[in-house]
Amino acid sequence: MTIPIEFSSQFIKDHSPPEEQLFQSFLQSGEPYTSLFRNNPWLIPPDAGKPLEWGSGAYWDTTVARKHPHWKKIELPVPTRDLHQMRRDFVNWGFCLIQDGLSAAQCDRFRARLFDQAEGERLAGVEQRTPTGQYVNTLINKGQIFAQCIEQDPEAVQAGPLIEHFLNETLGRGWICHSFLANGADPGGQPQILHIDQGPLMPWITEEAPALVNTMFIPQDIHEGNGGTLLIPGSHQILIEAGSGGPVGKMPPTIQLEAPAGTIMLFDGRLLHGTGVNRSSELRFVATMSNVKPWMRTQENWALSVDPAVLASASPKLLHRIGMQALTYGATVEGFGLGARGRVGEAVGDTRPFREAADDGSYLRVGELSPDSSLETLDQPFTLRSVTEQARRRASK
Ligand SMILES: [Fe+2]
What we know:
This protein is α+β, with helices and mostly antiparallel strands. The protein is built from 14 helices and ten strands. It has helices at residues 9-14, 24-27, 33-39, 83-93, 104-124, 144-150, 160-171, 235-242, 302-305, 308-313, 316-321, 352-359, 375-378, 383-396; strands at 95-98, 128-129, 134-136, 176-184, 212-217, 230-231, 255-256, 264-268, 273-274, 285-292. The radius of gyration is 24 Å and the shape is globular. The N and C termini lie far apart (56 Å). The structure holds fe (ii) ion.
């Protein structure tokens, strides 16, 4: 077969000088990290092959704000139940702390289930090890309390209604859960590289508002001794000022988060942060539930991973939150969901029946058809056909 010369790989290569390729100076800029490391070499992550350095001013070698020479006279966020204060803290510093976001009983239940799960996964040999410590992934399958947290059910997380409202404000209604997992800072672990959670969007910074907001559940006291999360308060503002693709200058120093068990931290997807170093002998976990726009690809592939039993008992709200409520520009299945608005309980976007059909082995996809197809082929019980009919019936009720 002869194809026109213009479509050959060599021809394309010969006609693609770097200076002519589109958008490359922006997309390949490596910003904001390129300038961040150039102007703040103390933010360069440690060499995993060498012992951690202390005393040389590296980002992991810090303390809590109230003891930090740079920060101790500055009013940084402290746990509060004042929503007005939370809004100010979030905008000014990139994070806010909800006091008693989990009640004492909720916190005990959360911590007990999480620590048991972590130990069980270690015993089963299925634990996920990271340089900072053990991760416990896909919490939705590992205890009812975690599914309830994704729903922000006040039974499991008393600050749920406030968190939902805050996420509606900051992300816009219809946001979904990106993932919900527990991050361990194990004794002797490495610090995490300081990063922003909406990093995959870089070099876009989304100056006007975040594209991701994280909800960090703190089920045990965290402090400088046990790997309190590292943060640069206000770093999101420095990135915003630099703009998408712009170079950043000097950063103020990191702090380690200090917060009592039961606190929930909300933080902006543009805030520089990372897991701290645990210098105690005890395990330390926090659990992060990040949240994104409903059309974004989620970190957790919920459609595949959620346990059938969890799915069977999931409320319309939980289904929506794990991205199983399709909308025109996201999560459609064989076109089912085009035209849907991504609303909770919306029949014409409910993709759960496809997953259930896949689980029971009956999912029949529409494949190659033509005018020459036999009647038998055309009349197959395509899952799309039955799901669409059911959804139309539900929608018309
Ligand atoms: Fe993060």
